[in-house]
Specification:
Structural class: mainly alpha
Mean pLDDT: 92
CATH topology: Monooxygenase
Distance between the termini: 47 Å
CATH architecture: Up-down Bundle
Low-confidence stretches: none
Number of helices: 4
Strand content: under 5%
Helix content: over 70%
Order of helices and strands: HHHH
Number of domains: 1
Shape: elongated
Amino acid sequence: MDSFLLSLLGLTAAACTTASFLPQVIRSIRTKQTKDLSLPMCVLLVTGMLLWLLYGILIQDIPIIAANSVALGLMTVLLFLKLKYG
């Protein structure tokens, strides 16, 4: 497969999975409620995203870097809200 198409596929997948966090972030900010979010899940997800970001940087893979940079930011906000609102 053409490297452009592979990159496009990766970026599209990255956009979809990263965007999936946005509704939860918006809802948590609006309602100030995070009781249904699992703290261990948030911590593990943030850790995993950080590791994926480092991996993407090391192999210089733009879709991995882009997806995990944005997702890590969104999950960090959710983690902060979880710690703040319980």
